[in-house]
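JOB MANIFEST
job_type = single_chain_structure
chain_count = 1
residues = 65
[input]
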Amino acid sequence: MGSYLLVLYLVSKLFYIANVVSQLFVLNRVLGMTYSTFGIDMIKYVTSPSSIFSKISSLTFILNA
């Protein structure tokens, strides 16, 4: 019985992994964007010197005493 439960557990985990991979493929296909490297591409965009993303901001406080 123990080996049956172990095999059942491992098969369910394989189904979970297959579900995640298939959802990534469907998401890439439907939306036309590569979501498998989205985080890495965003980090490269933010850290690139030619990006438009604001790296320096200025905030001025006016205090009325």
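[summary]
The mean pLDDT is 81.
Residues 2-47 form one domain.
exit_status = 0
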